[in-house]
Amino acid sequence: MKILHVLYSGLGGHGNVFFSMVDADINGEFTFEALFNGIEEVKEEYIERCTAKNIRWHFIKKKPGLDIGHYIKLYRQIKKTRPQVIFLHGGAAAFPAKLAKITGTGIQKIIVRETQANHLKTNIDWLYLATAMLVADKMVYLSEAYRQQVKTKLTWSFREKRSVVIPNGINLLTYGKATKPHDATRIVLGMQSRLIAIKDHLTLLEAFALLLKKERPVTLQLLIAGDGAYKETLQAHAAALQITQHVIFTGMLEEKELVSFLQQLDIYIHASLGETMSTAIMQAMACGLPIIASDVPGINNMITHQENGLLVPAKNAPLLCEAMMHLIDNPGNAAVLAKNAVTFAKKNYSNTRMLERYTLIFNS
User: Of 32, 143, 155, 352, whose CB neighbour count within 10 A is largest?
Assistant: First the structure.
């Protein structure tokens, strides 16, 4: 069965889910093909991974703003590919996918995996989602709470029988706890994500600046992985806080580099204004890290406070600093949180389990 994934060409959770699904198909049951599209060029890592796994891929670049020609090109490429299943990572391409299906290309199903945090959606995002609901054979939501929010907002277009909840998954074999020698004199904290407005890096920097003012018999370092429009703003903020010598911006990391990045951390911090489902937190869990994260939708359904991590209100630097101090001063508690996080990831975020759930949809 050929499955065409239509996904964003740049950094984001789309690529992680796509390649996790490919990795999970150890028996070669499916033929995966990728149609990358967006305002960014295709990530070099995506090209390399497609080449290594013999995955056919295509790229259609979109102009910023409304680009009607982009959707026409998507329609033509979908028709040319002739998949049995179209897997849309988001609803923006729902209409060209539906048009391709009804014009006799052998497409059996359109599946839309809805990913954007509801409280961050614009009016056009809600319109895309409503359109997707009307044309999709199955709408996939990442959590029940997220599904219910959509149902409440778009009652008129919501189709109960077409909706299903399937959490994301990652290749747990790729991520694991490093055998890092204990160094009581140095604590490394870190976060990885796109450097964009919906993340809360500014608060993270402010909290870390407060932490540095506390007297601690350890050297503290903060690593921030990722790239994006806010990078210069964040670097300037670090300079204004006079913490530049303690903060390293690593830039964009490929998957192998990301694993090494996580394995050198003592504490993972994910400061955010909202998520749908954080792949970064899954990866940190799988690497056996104690986690501090913002108490916002898309995170607080993954982390239970004081069980498999610590939750802190967004935009609250003093409380985030307190959480950091707590884990630094209580390594035993940090170890328990980390152990529980690994167990939770294995139970809930396996890419094999994710593909099993999708296979039921593909074959239904």
Answer: 32
